[in-house]
Amino acid sequence: MKVLSVIGARPQFIKEAVVGEQLRARGMREILVHMFLAI
Fold first, then answer.
1. Looking at the chain, which terminus has fewer C-beta neighbours within 10 angstroms, N or C?
2. How far apart are CA 22 and CA 33, in angstroms?
3. Domain boundaries, the chain
4. Inter-residue contact 2 to 28 (CB < 8 Å)
5. CA–CA separation, 3 and 26 (whole Å)
6. Residue 10, pLDDT score
């Protein structure tokens, strides 16, 4: 199974680390997209 994770701010990266670790432990692939907005 593939999972698409879309994150933006630094706090989301910290939370995503836990989620990503659990996905890998279960043999799932994750695609991580970092949304960056510069004005």
1. C
2. 18
3. 2-34
4. yes
5. 12
6. 83
Q: Other C-beta atoms within 10 Å of 34: how many?
A: 12
pLDDT in tens, the chain (39 residues): 999 999 988 889 999 999 999 999 999 999 999 988 767
Helices assigned H by DSSP within the chain: 10-25
The Cα 39–Cα 24 span in angstroms is 35
Structure tokens belonging to residue 6? 């879309």
- Give pLDDT, residue 29: 96
Cβ neighbours for 17, distance < 8 A, ≥ 6 positions apart:
none
Token code pair at residue 19: 């989620």
